[in-house]
Design brief:
single chain; mainly beta; 5-stranded mixed sheet; 39 strands; elongated
Amino acid sequence: MRSARFISLATALLLAASGCAGGSRTVPAPRHANTAARVPVSFTMHWPVRGTSAGAHRRRPAFVSPSTASVIVEVNPDASAPGAVTFANAPPSGGTSTIAIDAPPGPDVFLISLYDAPQTPGETTATGNELGRVRAAQTIVANTTNTLNATVVGTVAAVRIGPLPNQGNVVPIPAASPAAYELAGRAPARFAVAPLDGAGNVIVQPDAPPSISLAPNARAVGTLSVTPVNGTTDQFTVQALAPNATTYPTALVATATDANGNLATSSTIVDVTSALYVAYANGGAPAVARFDPHGTPLPLPAAAFAGLGNPVALAYDADDREIFVADAGLGKVLAFDENGAALKSFAPPAIAGVNGVAYDPHSRNVYATGSAGVTVFAPDGGPPRGTAPASFAAASAQGIAFVAASAGATLNRIAAGNASATPRLAFFNENGGPAGGVALAAAPVALAYAAPGTISQSPPTDAQIYLTTAAGVLAFDAFGGDVATAANAGGPFGVAVDPNFGEPTIAERSANAITTYLDDLSAVDAARSFATPASLGLAQPQGVCHVF
């Protein structure tokens, strides 16, 4: 925006106008004042240069919209005998225009409106979008120079919501129009709200700024939180609070209201999703990597997840926001925060042959499978909470999951794989009491649980327990009933279920890839499947978990 951005009176009136903004309004035809006594007034309009030059896009604390193409001036428009009205159109290349109008001596009201289209003599309705308007009162004195300073208030026509740049946990949804985003994990992100005029220009107006608000939409209440950023009027911190249990994406709704009362509202999809953590054996140099749902790495600190030996399984405690790592090389379960820092208060329990780990949000205990059965401990590594034993027998235990509920009942059970010559899927209560089981056709490697589906789930399925074997993926209902099978030649290892989408994610050890299936295993979800990026230099993915 050029520095010439005001309306000035040459003879009797000075209008220093600034602002930016949409809409159109009805104006009377050009007329002369009905009063006999009038003062001829002329003023000069300094037009902004329209175009895409660097100068045209400089922002100043106050400015006329760069799309301004005409100005309409009315005198006493609401009086029983309205005064004069006139207009001027912008020259093709900017510059100045002199406009003449009559104003009666005494108290007057001047209504000044800016538009993004030229006006036509004799029109009764203004052409184009209103970009800004100001109603200014001034007593006009005859035979003297009168000065009026007025700030044009930008007319809000629309509002734009978008994330600030360089936030890895905010993922644009490809090909979405208008723009839409995924918010990966619970890390906060910052979004900005921009009020726009009718030509799509951002309204920058510190002296009379539009009032701006941002909030979750009705379906996102309790799932997303929005907090204004201190020291700003247009930025907000957005954070996921809980998984999105509906089949609809979560969204943000923004409202902007200008000083003249014009209001605009807009919504933008900001869908809650999980960050995916993958543990790699990596030929004896183990590591954990973090990804967005589509496989783009989300960097971790340099020393993240240090001290691993052979991480074979991961689990997430959403209550305490801890990640548990079952490390077969160390014979222990380790605990880290979401950035991979070891939890100093955690006492790693020793578990011979550890191969699986799961968190039970009902008892708030951690269950791990190993060569001696199932070991139970509190999230800090201490004795288990409540009445759960420190361990219980589970033959040839391989892989574990907490099963909260079926579609019709609360269960609060532990599912553990049995990798013996007669493999099984065994169920236990939280205290280790047997609760049934089913035979398996192949030895299990890992287990994961999905919350019950809804009637609107697509595709509809009864699958709630997913189990990997050396040759594929099996799906069962909450009681172990067969639901579906998918062959997989990539070396299936770890499995985890995205709490937002209900889809199982498989670590393919030999293929060095992550594959996500639709919840009924009928097809691969290609948008959420990916090969490990070569740039990471990692191989042999084993444990996986969704962190939310």
